[in-house]
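Subject: design request, 515 residues
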């Protein structure tokens, strides 16, 4: 039994040490906090599904729209709204010599160049890889040794001005910054030795300058004793994706603080890129429709007879005719339709082919008078559209677009030839959802999770069910997080379960969101 006692004593001591260490760890953990923010402010529940946006001109299977170029002199109008005309009838007469065909041709060429330039810009935006929506900076330091002082000791007896220094006397001490720059000096009026601690300094600037000049000119008469110290210097700044924590860029510096390489990601965040694309799409849309109008004007000019007559190309009803003394150049002067059924053409991306079908309704809105109508999709092409950017099909920017045709009745108030916006909500996209910023979500072998504040105000790991991702920055939450919850940025202290939570309005991402 006596042989067992030392073992028991050692075991008890070890237990006490473990208990103390655990107590210290628990105490330290209890003092740590992590910032958490409300998902009522960070989340979003007003998203109502993807909307396919397109645009086009109202037309009919057999119709004619005639734009009259600005400056054209109208001599006579032979029809009024509601009249029936036959193919070949004279609709109106203009002065042939008032039609500037050469000028219109040049104007059309310029419009085409502007449209093409903006289409190229749009295509570049659509193929742009965005930088992370949120970036976290991490600074990397390295140690370096530098000379902080140089002590100049007389190697022999020397005289400088009125002062005599014996061999081994301290003459001066020079002080340097971490970059090697001399930042100060002490000059001794009488020599002191290694074992002496009290000294005086030369205060007279002229005398001090004389001694320092002597040192510079007579270096062989001195023994130099350097003193070195270690300092940390900023070697690089890492830029990390706030969501994945992957390094996406790095700035590097030399030990003098000069930048060697600037590698901070430069570009547009997903949300900003989405905004830029939308703006550029609007520009392309307006330029495209303006180009088509000019194209129609030139065609009307070329088809005007030598006597100035503009002839009906189809038999039908005059759907619209403007006042020859006060007409709007941006709209067709006269339109003729052989049917009461109007239609528009748009495009959908292949991403939506399974959720948009013949018989679905689309919403259209006139640019001219704001009138709205519902049109029914009557055709969807089986072949991708060859038009580069005339239609905006929505969905994946890199997918092919498929042209569709949707019909509506002329009684809607939207006129033949009008430019319209087209909007489609794909099947299954009409229900709202709850979305949170994607950087609050992490993944492990068990799935996606967040770090959520519990009822006892400490952090806990909560596995969640996610849905679709919007714009690369927002993720739909199907289960596990509500607007009432508070979440932490799930890195650093934000990844530690059991840590106390501190509610804040906004996280300090630059500091990891830590308290």
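Subject: RE: design request

Done. Sequence follows.
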């Amino acid at each position: 039994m006596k042989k067992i006692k030392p073992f028991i004593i050692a075991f008890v001591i070890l237990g006490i040490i473990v208990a103390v260490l655990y107590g210290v760890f628990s105490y330290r953990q209890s003092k740590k906090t992590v910032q958490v923010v409300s998902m009522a402010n960070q989340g979003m529940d007003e998203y109502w599904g993807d909307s396919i946006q397109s645009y086009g001109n109202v037309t009919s299977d057999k119709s004619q729209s005639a734009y009259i170029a600005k400056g054209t002199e109208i001599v006579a109008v032979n029809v009024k709204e509601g009249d029936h005309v036959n193919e070949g009838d004279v609709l109106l007469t203009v002065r042939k010599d008032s039609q500037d065909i050469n000028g219109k041709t040049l104007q059309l060429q310029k419009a085409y160049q502007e449209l093409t330039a903006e289409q190229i810009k749009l295509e570049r935006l659509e193929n742009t890889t965005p930088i992370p929506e949120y970036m976290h900076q991490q600074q990397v330091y390295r140690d370096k040794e530098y000379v902080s002082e140089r002590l100049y000791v007389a190697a022999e007896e020397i005289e400088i001005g009125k002062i005599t220094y014996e061999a081994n006397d301290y003459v001066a001490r020079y002080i340097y910054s971490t970059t090697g720059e001399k930042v100060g000096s002490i000059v001794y009026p009488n020599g002191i030795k290694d074992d002496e601690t009290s000294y005086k300094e030369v205060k007279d600037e002229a005398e001090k300058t004389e001694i320092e000049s002597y040192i510079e000119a007579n270096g062989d008469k001195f023994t130099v004793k350097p003193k070195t110290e270690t300092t940390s210097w900023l070697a690089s700044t890492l830029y990390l994706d706030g969501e994945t924590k992957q390094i996406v860029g790095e700035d590097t510096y030399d030990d003098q603080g000069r930048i060697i390489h600037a590698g901070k990601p430069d570009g547009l965040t997903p949300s900003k890129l989405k905004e830029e694309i939308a703006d550029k799409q609007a520009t392309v849309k307006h330029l495209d429709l303006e180009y088509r109008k000019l194209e129609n004007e030139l065609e009307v000019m070329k088809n005007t007879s030598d006597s100035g007559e503009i002839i009906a190309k189809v038999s039908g009803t005059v759907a619209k005719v403007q006042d020859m003394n006060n007409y709007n150049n941006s709209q067709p002067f006269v339109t003729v339709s052989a049917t009461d059924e109007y239609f528009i053409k748009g495009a959908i991306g292949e991403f939506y082919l399974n959720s948009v079908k013949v018989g679905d309704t689309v919403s259209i809105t006139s640019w001219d008078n704001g009138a709205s109508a519902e049109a029914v999709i009557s055709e969807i092409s089986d072949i991708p559209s060859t038009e580069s950017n005339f239609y905006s099909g929505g969905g994946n920017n890199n997918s092919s677009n498929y042209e569709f045709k949707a019909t509506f009745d002329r009684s809607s108030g939207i006129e033949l030839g009008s430019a319209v916006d087209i909007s489609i909500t794909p099947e299954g996209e009409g229900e709202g959802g709850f979305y949170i910023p994607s950087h609050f979500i992490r993944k492990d072998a068990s799935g996606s999770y967040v770090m959520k504040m519990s009822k006892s105000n400490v952090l806990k790991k909560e596995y969640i069910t996610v849905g679709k991702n919007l714009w690369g920055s927002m993720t739909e939450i199907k289960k596990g997080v509500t607007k009432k919850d508070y979440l932490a940025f799930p890195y650093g202290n934000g990844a530690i379960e059991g840590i106390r939570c501190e509610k804040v309005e906004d996280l300090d991402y630059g500091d990891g969101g830590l308290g």
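The helical segments are 5-31, 39-42, 101-126, 205-217, 270-303.
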